[in-house]
Amino acid sequence: VNHVVNAKLLFDIVQKCPYGWTNFGVRCYKFFSQSVNWITAEVKNCLGLDANLASVHNKLENDFLLSLLPSSSTLCWLGVHDGEQEGQWMWSDGTPYDYTYWCSYEPNNRNVENCGEVNFSANRCWNDIACSTPMGYICAINL
What we know:
By secondary structure, this protein is of the alpha+beta class. It has a single domain (2-142), classed as Mannose-Binding Protein A, Chain A (Roll), CATH 3.10.100.10. 23% of the residues lie in helices and 29% in strands. The chain is globular and about 55 Å long.
C-alpha cells in the first residue's frame, strides 16, 4: 500500500511542473540559454515566472543542474551571491547556505565578484564572477 501512495505522490508532484520544466525533489527547474547578467536573470526573468535562480543543497542537486546544461562547457548563473555583505554568501531564494561546490581557490572576489556561476573549468565547479557578466541561467520553482 505504501508503494501505491508514494507513486501517487510522485505522480502528483511531476504533474505540477510547468511545461518545459524538469522536476527534481520538491522543485521544478529550467535552463534558459539567453545570456543576461545576474540581476536580470533573478529579478526580471526568474521572479517574473514566480521562480528564483536555482539554489543547491547537496551533490545530487548539483549534478542534476549540470545535467540540464546543453554542454559540459556551458556556464550558467546560480542564485548564490554575496552582494549584501562581502564574504557572506547566500541564496537568492532565502534557503539555507548549507552546501557548496566552489572550485579550488574560489570564491576569490577577483575584480569584485559577487555572484556565482556553475560549470566552471574541467571540474564543473562553482566560481564567483562579476554580476554584470552575461550568461545563461537556471530558474527553480518550489512545488
